[in-house]
Amino acid sequence: MNTKESFAVVTGASQGLGKAFVESLARKNINVILISLPNQHLKEVSEAISEKYNVKTYYYEVDLSIKENVLQMTVWLNKLFDIHILINNAGLGGTKKFLDASFGYIDNILQVNVMATSLITHQLLPNLLKQPQAYILNVSSMAAFSPIGFKTVYPASKTFIHSFSRGLHEELKDTNVFVSVVNPGAMKTNSDVCERIEKQGFLGRLTLLDPNKVASYCIDQLFKKDSVIMVNPISWLVMKMLPIWIKLPLMTNAIRKEIEA
Q1: Side-chain half-sphere of 26: how many Cα atoms within 13 Å?
Q2: Is residue 97, in this structure, part of any structural domain at all?
Q3: Considering 59, 60, 154, 217, which one is annotated as catalytic?
Q4: Residue 74 to residues 8, 33, 106, 114, 116: CA-CA distances in angstroms?
Q5: What is the mean pLDDT of residues 23-45?
Q6: Helical residues (DSSP H) of the chain, grouped into ranges
Q7: Which of the 8 DSSP states describes residue 175?
Q8: Residue 46 CB neighbour total at 10 angstroms
Q9: Whole-structure pTM value
């Protein structure tokens, strides 16, 4: 496929897994458009990757929790670029007692994880369908396979992403657009995250992943047309085999340790 003038779009691209996705694509000589919040040094990240890998990069700073912002962004993308890869990586989590959660806390998670992912995919799909071959990768989570106390909204939003991706994959299977979903565990995105996960005990450490390895593996599997990418098969096996009456209190207790610590 000639990707010289077409682009991949990556949301949440300024750090962590999103930045790792951008670098993995750039190593494959794929041009990238980086999407992230303002004040995340996105311009510097974009320019550094363009210079290092000799690919074209553009960036767009936006708060994806606001629907009007998402629509404006997709209009800009569709007007200026041919897009053959969309990676919906941006997502919000959090650990909080539901009673203590503010309206804004709940709304932000749902707007970014559910609304933005759905709306970006919907608005860019006509563009993707115009390409000879196109790919959509949605980032879900191991949390999609179990509800968790003290993280009530986040796992529910990731269950949506998993279900949405599987359904869209089936709907588009006879087109040129291939849809995949990845369900990673927690990742070593920064020292604060690593410290927080360590407080969860053995269960938290079991799922801790390197974002660079995850991104590289995901891109390879995406191009191999793997519709459900599992980067941590041990965690996946545990989550699939354990009945809900065991894994729900087990995971909730791990998160309670994080809160208490």
Answers
A1: 26
A2: yes
A3: 154
A4: 13, 12, 24, 16, 11
A5: 97
A6: 16-27, 42-53, 67-80, 103-110, 117-129, 153-171, 191-198, 202-206, 211-223, 233-241, 244-260
A7: S
A8: 22
A9: 0.89
Residue 88 pLDDT greater than 80, yes or no: yes
**Residue 39, domain extent:** 6-190+209-232
pLDDT digits (tens, 9 = 90+) for 190-212: 555 556 565 555 555 555 688 99
Count how many domains the chain has: 1
Q: Report CA Rg, the chain.
A: 18
Confirm whether 1 is domain-assigned: no
Residue 23: CA atoms inside 13 Å, Cβ hemisphere, count?
17
Least trusted range by pLDDT, from 2-11, 94-103, 178-187: 2-11
Catalytic residue status for 60 = no
Q: Is residue 174 part of a domain?
A: yes
Q: Which of 186, 17, 175, 3 is nearest to 88 (CA)?
A: 17
